[in-house]
Design a protein that fits this description.
With 461 residues, this protein is an alpha/beta fold. The protein is built from 13 helices and seven strands.
């Protein structure tokens, strides 16, 4: 006696290879759909008009003119063609009007947002194709895309190709072809399919528009490169001119300063019987000439090449500061100007820029006294505020003695301009002007720590 088991037999195990291949296919399909949705849902940029960056006013208005012209032409023609298909039902009139508006009016939106306009028009085209499947006079006519729909869609493709990315254009093209293939099995009898036609024409127009857009982008890059080349040529010309000025300055000034130095050094040996005071004066002249040559070499280094600091780092030669003011005053006294110097007992720690600016301001002020008020009694004082936040540099000279006359009757004013520029760079203040007794006053207030340019710009913004 045989008994039948009540436990059902197990199903045969599925092939692991077949299941993994199917899962890989599904995963690839899902990934492709996600990429397609991302490309179709992400516009390339903001809603700026097509040709909005061109200089010609007519070219900027051309997209609006074309969009308005096709909208005015296609709206009544689309309505007429859809009516000729013989759509039946009480709502046919309203449906035809709504579809005609949705298929044509968004062309105006395509001027600024072509991808959003594509969503509206393509959705309306799909609804129109589905509505036409039950039309009475569909036989012998084109389906799923009537002629006005094809024309409007191609105009939209032109706007889309001039704005969107290449991957977005490929996604639009493939979506158009896939929808046309999906409509093929449900095509009405004796209708002429236009799915392949629209797919081919869309690809051609998208390719042409993409080529035109990329050609315009290349031309803009070439124009930018030409502009950069012009700026580089202007900069190179400027550097060559500065190098020429540096050579001439070196040939003219350096030669004479070198002659002065040699003559001052060799005078005690060439001329016999020179008093000791005269020998010291010649030594001072030679020392001053050497300092001037050193200053000129630093200036020539700046004039000859701005790239030197970029490639080899900043200048390694130490710059003068208020610690060298006694030596500067001593040289001015030897030039015949009685100068009194007052420095704090303990020099405060200064930023290099502030230290150099203080020295240059005193140097220029004393040079102006030597040129314009020779023999005038002058007082130089450097003081720090109680809270150690500001440094005050004051140079005051009285009126020159009556018999003396200025070495220069006029000036260019570059000295005062240079002082103001140095003070401005360290976020200080400068006060200059004549005094009632005929003298002159230069007062500069400098911060003990220079304010960085970025901080200064943000503070004044």
């Amino acid at each position: 006696m045989f008994t039948r088991s009540l436990i059902p037999d197990r199903e045969p195990a599925r092939s692991p290879g077949r299941e993994s291949a199917r899962s890989r296919t599904m995963r690839a399909a899902r990934q492709a759909l996600r990429v397609l949705a991302a490309e179709l849902g992400t516009p390339a940029g903001p809603g700026t008009p097509l040709f909005g960056n061109v200089h010609s006013r007519w070219l900027r208005r051309l997209p609006y003119i074309v969009a308005c012209a096709f909208t005015v032409i296609l709206l009544p023609s689309t309505r007429t063609v859809l009516s000729d298909y013989g759509m039946s039902g009480g709502l046919a009139v309203w449906l035809i009007g709504g579809l005609a508006i949705a298929q044509t009016v968004p062309l105006l939106l395509a001027v600024t947002r072509p991808l959003q306009a594509w969503w509206v028009i393509f959705a309306a085209d799909i609804l129109c194709a589905m509505a036409l499947t039950g039309a009475d006079r569909i036989a012998g006519r084109t389906w799923p895309w009537p002629p006005p729909v094809v024309i409007g869609y191609l105009v939209l493709m032109l706007a889309l190709s001039l704005r969107e990315r290449r991957r977005t254009l490929i996604a639009v093209w493939l979506t158009t072809g896939v929808v046309g293939l999906l409509f093929a099995p449900v095509a009405p009898d004796r209708s002429h399919s236009t799915g392949v036609l629209l797919f081919v024409l869309t690809g051609v127009l998208l390719l042409m528009g993409a080529i035109l857009r990329e050609r315009g982008a290349v031309q803009r890059k070439l124009l930018e490169q030409e502009t950069i080349s012009e700026a580089e040529r202007a900069r190179r010309t400027l550097l060559e001119e500065r190098a020429r000025i540096a050579r001439e300055l070196h040939d003219v000034v350096a030669h004479h300063m070198s002659v002065i130095t040699v003559q001052a050094d060799s005078a005690p040996y060439r001329i016999s019987g020179i008093p000791k005071e005269a020998q010291e004066e010649f030594g001072a002249i030679a020392a001053t000439a050497r300092e001037s040559l050193a200053e000129m070499r630093r200036l020539l280094g700046v004039l000859r090449s701005e790239e030197a600091e970029r490639h080899h780092g900043p200048e390694k030669t130490p710059q003068p500061g208020i610690g060298q003011l006694p030596k500067l005053v001593e040289g001015t006294v030897r030039a015949g100007v009685p100068v009194e110097l007052a420095l704090p007992e303990e020099l405060p720690a200064l930023e290099p820029a502030v230290d150099l600016s203080a020295y240059r301001i005193v140097q220029e002020a004393l040079a102006n006294v030597v040129r314009h008020a020779p023999g005038a009694r002058t007082r130089v004082s450097v003081t720090a505020t109680a809270d150690r936040s500001r440094l005050t540099v004051l140079v005051v000279n009285s009126a020159p003695p009556a018999p003396s006359a200025p070495l220069e009757t006029g000036g260019t004013g570059h000295g005062l301009i240079g002082m103001r520029e140095r003070v401005r760079l360290v976020d200080g203040s400068l006060d200059t002007g004549p005094l009632p007794d005929g003298g002159f006053r230069v007062a500069a207030r400098l911060p003990l720590s220079a304010l960085p340019l970025s901080a200064k710009d943000s503070a004044t913004a």
